[in-house]
Amino acid sequence: MNRRKFLTILGSAGVVSALGTAKVAEAGMHTFPYYADSYGVLHDTTRCIGCRRCEEACNKVNNLPKPEKPFTDLSVTATRRRTTAYEWTVVNKYEMNGKPVFRKLQCFHCNDPACASACFAKCFQKQPDGSVTYDGSQCVGCRYCMVACPFYVPGFQYDEAFDPLVQKCTFCEPRLKEGKLPGCVEACPVDALTFGRRSDLIKVARARIADNPGKYVNYVYGEFDAGGTAWMVLAPAAEGAPVPADSPAQAAPDLKQLGLNTHLGNRPMGELTYGALGAVPMIVAFWPVLFGGAYAMTKRREAISKLEQEKVLKEAREDVAAAVDAAVRKIEETEGEGAAERARRAMTEALKAREAEAACSKHGEDK
Amino acid sequence: MENHGIVIPTRDKLFNLDPLLRRTPGNILTWIILSVGLIITIIRFTQGIGSVTNLDDNQPWGLWIGFDLLCGVCLAAGGYFTTVACYVMGMKHFHSAVRPAVTTAFLGYGFVVVALLYDLGHPLRLPYMFFFPGTTSVLFEVGLCVATYVTVLFIEFSVAPMEWLAQKFPWLLKWRKLVIRCTILLTIFGVTLSTLHQSSLGSLYLIAPEKLHPLWYSPFMPMFFFVSSMAAGASMVIFEGMFAHKGVHEYMDATHLREADGVVLSFARAASFILFAYFMLKLIDMLVQANIPYLFTGYGAWWLVEMLFFVLMPALLYAKGARDGNVSLCRFASANTVLGIVLNRFNVSMIAFNYNLPSAERYFPSIWEICISMFVVTMIVTVYRFIVYHMPVLYEHPDFKDEAH
């Protein structure tokens, strides 16, 4: 490799790294905007009676397949269920401080959703109205969204052969556009689900906690968890417990009984990967220089050792030539011109033969 | 001549399929696995993923991702490892190891993509990631790098089929010459892409801290995956070499045979250092994350088994083998390392994933998933054999012998 070639490689590496940097700068901006006026739902588990009307309404408004057991069968709430591709919301019964508590599960509609961050075909979008929507028409079916979701929400149509899609609660986005409430909220007979602007709901939740001392755990689940969610949960406090401070550490044991994970942190899950993604342009920029440099050093070392080898050979050859010359001159002095000529010829021939032999064996080694 | 028994295809007889069609126990087993795989393939693509797998909503990524993708990519790291050692670091005595390593790497990556098609709900939409690039996704980076690297490996590998077909189609020689001139460029491009996606396979799980057991979850997972891929690369060259010496010994020329033991010992030394470094990385990470209390649980015992018997032990065995010049010990250590890599990827993707779910909701692969993974491995072995029987991989083609490159 000559100097020009090396510079060409370095130049192209620079261009590639610049392109990479541009892309990640864009990715850095690409955090999902927080929509101040977005909607949410507050789920007050102290009011929920586990009637499964929300499940039924969800099934009806979204045209989901009818389940095996009817919605009037309330015994199913006793087994731990999760949302699936065909059940976008489920109500489970939890034992909390010795008392049964019902909690409705559905997509939390995160402010900055892990599924949207994880999707490599941009199927998920946080909408200004607060819903996280999914466009199946460009879904590759990799299911990384399901790995990423900290709430185990999205379900996949494993039974579908030709058009399997990821399915989850849509926040009834089409109904919101028509000015209607989400199906489940409309169907709730006990007002356990409150629909409203997310910013208002947080105030409502705080007011309920303040107005009913000892009734609630002093923690609005979803206010900050996983970067904040549109759907939030209020949990009942243990009876006779002192009014607790607003700290995740104190609320954790209670919320855990309700199947709510308080260890997700206050930042969006996607941010956990941005450090690794940010290193990409660094590697793209630096690796070619590092390995190109290593290559250049290797080449240089090879060239130097070759030069040194040649020098040693040359010196040896000159040594031999000098010795031969001295010997011939000595013969000339003692035995005359003719003998010297014969000696010179014999020695030259011997040297040539040796060189030819050396060249031959070297050639063989190269193979 | 040196190439005593090697069947070199000629202009008139391009194909040498005989060894693949002979009625040997190995071939019969191959046919059985391939036909079973073909039947499951038909079921998979007509009845859906659910008909052949135990995957569910809690465990969307099972054996096909955990083994075919994570292990497949990692174990194909021999390609970048060997080319960098030979071309960038100038270790010319590894030259005969380059082509087999590039061939297996290309096959490994190629079949990772094939296996991925089984796992995707919409396999035909795979190129969508380029049309709707989700740049915030680690998977996008993995996809982009793997797609590019498969192309690079294809170009690097293409020299062998060119040499095979050149007698019939002499114009291929121009392409071959061009590729050989670009060798160093391709090598550096390859190692950059490998660094990126080997580490990104670890980054995939960064987004799920609540699902992966703390002993395996770490912000440094990308680094762990990359460092272990280097050990896997070195080990796979030794491991594959062991089988090649058993199965296709007669296709190796004198140079390959002369250099083979040196390659094993040098790679063993390198792998030993890398495994020690990996062990220290994992150990320090465990300490700084204050994970010692977890060591006294069931998962902790399992973590210790992985670290002691599948990282530290092969590192020591490699060190001893390389020091004593004991090739068989090095080969044993390579098998140990390969098993360890598989165990680690299984732990991250399946065993320690969803560790907090009740055992009834946990995943175990179905027999059909295992069959498809075996099917993919068998396809790789069969295509590898086809290549070795036809192309100058384990020997140098007499027409191109005197070229130094």
Short description:
The complex is a heterodimer of chains A (367) and B (405). With 367 residues, chain A is mainly alpha-helical.
Can you give a write-up of this model?
The complex is a heterodimer of chains A (367) and B (405). Chain A contains ten helices and nine strands. Chain A has helices at residues 3-29, 53-61, 114-118, 144-148, 173-177, 183-187, 198-211, 248-257, 271-335, 337-366; strands spanning 39-44, 90-96, 99-105, 124-126, 132-134, 155-156, 166-167, 193-197, 231-234. With 405 residues, chain B is mainly alpha-helical. Chain B has one domain.
Rg over CA atoms of chain A: 39 Å
Number of strands of chain B: 0
Radius of gyration of chain B: 22 Å
* Rounded mean pLDDT score of chain A: 86
Biggest sheet of chain B, open or closed, and with what strands and sense?
none
β-sheet strand percentage of chain A: 5-15%
Number of domains of chain B: 1
Topology, element by element:
The complex is a heterodimer of chains A (367) and B (405).
Chain A: H1 3-29, E1 39-44, H2 53-61, E2 90-96, E3 99-105, H3 114-118, E4 124-126, E5 132-134, H4 144-148, E6 155-156, E7 166-167, H5 173-177, H6 183-187, E8 193-197, H7 198-211, E9 231-234, H8 248-257, H9 271-335, H10 337-366
Parallel strand pairs in A: 1-9
Antiparallel strand pairs in A: 1-8, 2-3, 4-5, 6-7
Chain B: H1 18-21, H2 25-47, H3 63-75, H4 78-88, H5 95-119, H6 128-131, H7 138-157, H8 159-165, H9 172-181, H10 183-203, H11 221-247, H12 254-288, H13 298-324, H14 327-351, H15 367-390
Helix pairs in contact in B: 2-15, 3-5, 3-14, 3-15, 4-5, 4-10, 4-11, 5-7, 5-15, 7-10, 8-9, 10-11, 11-12, 11-14, 12-13, 12-14, 13-14
